[in-house]
Amino acid sequence: MTLLPPTAPGATSTGTAVQGTAVPTTAAHPASAHAKRRTVAELSHDFRLANGRLARRVRQEQADNELTSGQFSALGAVFRLGPMTLSALSEEERVTPPSMNRTVNALVEAGLLDRAGSAEDGRKIVLTVTDTGLSLVRETRRRRDDWIAKRILKLTPEQRHVLAAATDIMKELANS
């Protein structure tokens, strides 16, 4: 496999080329010099699997195992973003309003969310996190952060540096 320079036809700005071409190692990512060369397709596959496994493992560190991941995600969105309408929450979570309505009903029934009329428009219903919901989100975040922190402490300083850089790259990917 031949690497294409970033300026070559078919290459991206990072020097990676079309599927089937190896991903270059660079001084900016020193650990990658020790990793085997992978094609973009192989890296995509490995990244997706590793990210999925890590996400599933972290989700297990939840203060209330009765909630589904979708319910906790919706609760977390209202916690992060503040009071919002059902339609705004549906859009944020990328689910249909009827599906989000079922999720919200379960969270209201569990005492984790409240519904109230909007002060600006009485026809609109605004969702807010209850004190019980706040406690649940905070405890779950603490457990998840602790679980990850314990594993990060076992990494070498170089691995931590690479992880910090990879985290920034993952944020870019998630926001693109």
TrEMBL record:
Coiled-coil stretches: none
HTH marR-type domain sequence ranges: 40-175
Entry-linked Gene3D superfamilies: Winged helix-like DNA-binding domain superfamily/Winged helix DNA-binding domain
KW Transcription regulation (keyword) present: yes
GO function terms (MF aspect): DNA binding; DNA-binding transcription factor activity
Ranges of Low complexity composition bias in the record: 1-33
Region (Disordered) residue spans: 1-34
Transcription in keyword set: yes
Keywords: DNA-binding, Transcription, Transcription regulation
The protein, known as: MarR family transcriptional regulator
